[in-house]
Amino acid sequence: MDLSAINPVLLIASLMVAATPLLLAAIGELVVEKAGVLNLGVEGMMIVGAISGFAIAVETGSPWLGFLAAAVGGAALSLLFVVLTQVALANQVASGLALTLFGLGLSSLMGQSYVGVKPPRMAELHIPGLSDMPVLGPILFSHDPVLYLGVAIIAAVWAVLKFTRVGLILRAVGENHDAAHALGYKVVRIRIAAIAFGGACAGLGGAYISLIRVPQWTEGMTAGVGWIALALVVFASWKPWRVLLGAYLFGGVTVVQLNLQAAGVAIPVEYLAMSPYLVTILVLVILSADKSSAPAALGRIFHASH
Amino acid sequence: MKLTSLLASAAMVLGLATGAVAQDKTKIGFVYVGPVGDGGWTYEHNQGRKAVEAEFGDKVETVFVENVAEGPDSERVMTQMALNGADLIFTTSFGYMDPTINVAKKFPNIKFEHATGYKTAPNVSVYSARFYEGRAVQGTIAGRMTKSNIVGYIGSYPIPEVIRGINSAYIHAKKVNPDVQFKIVWAFTWFDPAKEADAAKVLIEQGADVILQHTDSTAPQAAAKNAGNVITFGQASDMAEYAPSPRVSSIIDNWAPYYIARTKAVMDGTWETVNTWDGIGAGMVKIGEISSAVPEDVKAEALALKASIASGEYHPFTGPLNKQDGTPWLAEGEVADDGTLAGMNFYVEGLDGEIPQ
């Protein structure tokens, strides 16, 4: 065993990178669920975002345009879910699952000519002075900009939900759509906006994997992150900062367990491999002891005539 | 003629027609563990499938299902293929072993071929390639090329095939560089690019400047490319898009000749249970071009090793070799038998860490 081989500074820096795709996808789904819609298609929207972002970044040479395209791609796919569940009033669970299957297939079709291509690299942030500080520099001030965007989105979602009228309306729609409708709010329109936002965030999360974390395009490369994001929203009791905490915990334990393995720690690897899931669930379950519950209208179909 | 009898005769004609077609065409199914676009393991099996189609043209019909999880789900997929009239089914991952045996029992007239396993039946053959021969070549290059003397190894699952590869690479790295140390990380997946990339990054952060992988995607190659000054080897497929650096060489699985031969055997009715385990000599394992990033003398040494393995003159597991705990395994000049290799569940002396059980 050689724990000195583990560099804690690099460890924390890389756990933030490992957590960001999960964080982005989960915060998007949180907004969707707060509006009373259960979209199980996160995985599908992520993978479509991953290839859309990758393709545009490669074609234009600009990672920024890539991320923009990823957000648009994820949102565009989520509009399919909108048509099914908000217009045709189909079952949300079935539609979400279908969206994932469709997204996986569509992305491998779109990605046919991008296997083995290298994407342009997004420059890491470098603030003279701050980035050069020992310890804090590499941890806080030397990442790619999208990582900070993820944290900013968490803060923004928290502030909007808690302090603004828009947030109040969104929550009202998610708690009791009939009451919100009676008050004159456009339930369906608000939900469409929330679903599109969720799609855009999932797309960004997918592109973070294909453009920064890996970076390359491979079929099925999100490998289940979307499902973990769905679970994370529930365990985080629909609270934005807990999503951040959960994502960093999950990313952190994932990276730590790989580090421990490489350092030859004599803990059976199976325990290390399951530890990210266990630790994240455990911590968030303890935190959710305050009995905060799901939005009351979650997954229920709304039609103005009811 | 009445409508019902018309329909009945139409149905009979249709039935006869499809029956005739089914007899004409040999139907071959492939079960894949990853997507055909993984650029590694599954990609090469799919190349083999395409070679079968190219060889026999209209006489065969191939079907495949990708991303099939190991375990009960694979049993369902195989059963479905069998019910749809497949004559021969290739199941291409270690974890399909018991499902293949179970399904084969239910369909005694259908032939099954399971890759990398060890359980056979009257209608189940097994086939695998001696990847460890290629690992010996990689180990030699790794041992010569490393400057930090730390070689990182991304394992998938702790099964004999993977452990053989680790041992073979280590033995040959150690032979040319006595100071070399292996750091092994188990990913517990065959295919998860993000996780594979994380594993590669962790190994690089801990000082490894050579990364060997036994997982299927090219993600570790990309991670090494970003880190710079790290070399890698293509796994299962050439991964030439990362040449000349970080990818300096590769092990390429060449399944096409085997798939064509077995399909032919089913067509001729000469198929019988076999246990095939071929290596560099038979052409089932190929070594991808050693790139310009490798010095000429190292390249020559690696190629000489490859040639001696191919001719059968040298076996990568030749004594004296001890097991990890120091107990003797092979005496001077003794060569490991296939039985021990097939079930290998121990590290050789010098490797750190424990194999997850």
Automatic annotation (TrEMBL), chain A:
Recorded topology in the membrane: Multi-pass membrane protein
Keywords assigned: Cell membrane, Membrane, Transmembrane, Transmembrane helix
Chief location: membrane
Subcellular location as annotated: Cell membrane
GO MF annotations, alphabetized: transmembrane transporter activity
Parts of the chain that traverse the membrane: 6-25, 37-58, 64-84, 96-115, 135-161, 192-214, 220-238, 245-265, 271-289
Protein's UniProt name: ABC transporter permease
TrEMBL record, chain B:
Signal peptide residues on this chain, from the entry's feature table: 1-22
Protein name per its UniProtKB record: BMP family ABC transporter substrate-binding protein
One of the Pfam families matching this protein, by short name: Bmp
GO CC, one annotated term: plasma membrane
TM helices/strands, residue ranges: none
InterPro entries: ABC-Purine-Binding, PnrA-like
Keyword Nucleus: no
The keyword Signal appears for this protein: yes
Swiss-Prot/TrEMBL keywords: Signal
Organism: Antarcticimicrobium sediminis
PANTHER family tied to this protein: ABC TRANSPORTER SUBSTRATE-BINDING PROTEIN
Domain ABC transporter substrate-binding protein PnrA-like: from-to ranges: 25-312
